Amino acid sequence: MLEELSTAQKVVGVKQSLRALREGRARKVFLACDADPAVTGRVENACASVPVERDFTMAQLGSAAGIAVGAAVVTLLNG
Question: What CATH code would you report for 3-77?
Answer without folding.
Answer: 3.30.1330.30
